[in-house]
Amino acid sequence: MRQRSITAFFFALVMLGGIYGGAHSLFILFGLVATIGAWELGTLVYKTEETWSGLRTILISVLTLAVYVIGAGAPMGWWSLSPSLAMVIVPVVFGLLATLELFLAGKNPFPNIGLFYLSVFYLAVPLVLLIMLANQDGYHPNRVLGLLLLVWTNDTGAYLFGKKFGKNKLFPRISPNKTWEGTLGGAVFAVMMAWGLSLAWNDFSLVQWLVLGVVAAVGSNIGDLVESMLKRSVGVKDSGSIMPGHGGILDRFDAFVFCLPFYWLVLQWIH
C-alpha cells in the first residue's frame, strides 16, 4: 500500500507538471506514454518470438513514436500535414516492415507486422487527437486534465461502489472483479465530475462536459476490458513494471487512450 501511494504521488506530480508546464511539456509527456506503451506491447507479443525479439520491440517503439511526432507536430505548429501524406505513411511503413520481416525470418509474421498497426491506432493516433484538442486556438491544459479526471473519477467510483455493493459480475470471462454495481457507481461519479468541471472551467459547454462524462463512463470500462483481454491472451497480469504497485503505462492509460477518439468525435458533433 505504501509503495502504491508513493508511486501515485510521483505519478500525479509528473502528470500535472507535464500538463501545466506548457504545450511542449505535454507533447513530451505523451510522447513518452506512446513510446513506453509501444515497448510494453512489444514485450508482451514478441516474448514468444525466437528471433530478434529485442530489435522488434525497439522498432515498434520507434515507429510508434515517429507516427506520434509526425501527427502531433502539426497541431503544435511545427509543420503542416496533408491528408494524402498522412494516408501514404501507413502503406509505406507496411512495405518496410514486411520487407524487414523477410530477412528477420520470424515464425509469426502476421502478428509481428500487425503489432505496428495495433500500436499506432491504440496509442499514437488517440494521443495525436489529444494534442489537437489541447492546442486548438491556443493551449488549454484544463481540457487535458479534465478529460483525465473523468476517466480517473469513473475508475475510482467503480472501485468504491463495486467493493461496497458489487454482486453481479460485469464480464467475468475477462475481469472477474468488475461488477454492474461498480460500473453504475463509476458512471454516476463521472457525470458528477463532468458537471463540476463545467462549473469550474469554460473550455467546453455543460452539454459537452456531460456527454464527455458519459463517454468516459462507458469507454473507460470497455478500454480496461480490452487491455485485460490482450494481457490474458499472453498470460500476464500487468503490461509492465515501470510503476511499482501499479503495473505498466498501458495499465494506467488503457481506459484514457480508448476514450480519446470518442472524446474527439463528441466535441466535433456537439457545440
What is the gist of this entry?
With 271 residues, the chain is mainly alpha-helical.
Taken from the alpha-carbon principal axes, the silhouette is: globular
Task: Please list the strands of the largest sheet in the order they lie side by side.
Answer: 1-2
Helix and strand pattern: HHHHHHEEHHH
What is the rounded Rg? 19 Å
Helicity range: over 70%
| Helix/strand/pairing category | mainly alpha
Q: Residue-averaged pLDDT, rounded?
A: 89
Number of helices: 9
Strand content: under 5%
Total strands: 2
Largest sheet: 2 strands, antiparallel
Q: What is the terminal separation in angstroms? A: 43 Å
Low-confidence runs (pLDDT<50, min 5 residues)? Answer: none
Q: How many domains?
A: 2
What does this structure look like?
- By secondary structure, this protein is mostly helical.
- It folds into two domains: 23-137, no CATH class; 139-271, no CATH class.
- The protein is 76% helix and 3% strand.
- It is built from nine helices and two strands.
- It has helices at residues 2-20, 23-45, 53-73, 83-104, 109-134, 141-165, 180-200, 206-233, 249-269; strands at residues 169-171, 175-179.
- A two-stranded antiparallel ribbon has the order 1-2.
